[in-house]
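User: Quick sanity check before I run a bigger batch. Here is a single chain. Can you write out its predicted 3D structure?
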Amino acid sequence: MLFCNIDLLDENFALRRGQYVGVKDGRIAYVGDAAPEEDYGERYDGRYRLLMPGFFNVHSHAPMTLLRGYAENLPLQRWLNERVFPFEDKLTDESVYWSTQLAIAEMLASGTVSFTDMYFFLDGMTRAILESGIKCNLSRGLTVFDDSDYEQLAAYQDNLRLLGEWQGAGEGRLVGDLCIHGEYTSTPKVVEAVAAQAKEAGVRMHIHLSETQSEHEECKQRHGMTPAAYMQARGVFDVPTTAAHCVWLEDGDFEILRDHGVTVACCPASNLKLASGYANIPKLLDMGINVALGTDGAASNNNLYILQDLYLYGVVYKGFYRDSTLITPAQALHAATRAGALSQGREDSGLLRVGCRADLCVIDTDTPQFTPMTDAACNVVYAAQGADVKLTMVDGKVIYRDGQYLTMDIERVKAETQRCTDAIIAQL
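Assistant: Done. Predicted structure follows.
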């Protein structure tokens, strides 16, 4: 495909008008202000359109679209124990397949090209991911509340399959990671065993870390150290790790994350809705820690529309720290794109640059909220809406365009997800 006469945000998120971008063999092959001589196939009319890297959602629980609106107005521990866990006990591979499809549809329609997920029922999830055409770093959520060895858990067998038959499926779109749900939902020996497996296999880790004050303080009471120090001591940070939330970090925790190259998955909408607090994003950025954006699940957001979290990321910390200069639009866009790609180990994505993967989205700028377009980056961060996304491309393949899903039957996906939720609620 050749994007013709299209505005774009370059790798510094500066606006370049009237450009031509050629995509070939899944990669960006040409960027210039004149039409190339080479034939790139379909010519896309870029007038009143903005081309930019697609978004990376680096912390989600995709099948929790089933619980959208079901678990509300509760603190985290009651939210989990009284609503979420009993509901999740009724899940099946079928319900997870449909709900993952629904989550992917929502992400594609708002420009997300890849997501990082931890959940269960991997047969249903992998099928949905591979059929859709999206990218995903997938991990099997692991919780243990007794003295079981890691090898005794169902998660162990799932992880063998994830790192075996599913690793690199879909021409590399599906990447298998390992997961510890959190310190408070696991045991030290299982954490150490999973960390050792990740190191031996050379894969990444995905965890929750210091999401709430109670989680953070109770870890200190149990182990005499913060969750970050605990995970470091158990070997989790010996491999590249994405740590979700990180709201209640203490001073020494920041050095631990920096020294081990941990990515923080900032989830502002979820943290606000569950009243978890405010991550110290200014300090994380000042220390050079990679900060990327996540939506969390639809039970705690309630959507997977990354532009909402991008907006909150751009404004919430200004208000909390009373400094309007914090987090520039370029920093916010970096968190939503390149930082997310790096957190997934996708070094050749997240940038609009020749040679990078063609993981792109197109935004309609012929709208009231994009007029005037004094600064396109500001418009995307502070004004864009999900419906403004007109095209989502992954590895050079268009999989969402002008409201149409090219890899799924969206009406059936919606109907089946509603049916599954109704059936589960009827059992509770």
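The chain is about 35% helix and 20% strand.

User: Great, the batch can go ahead then.
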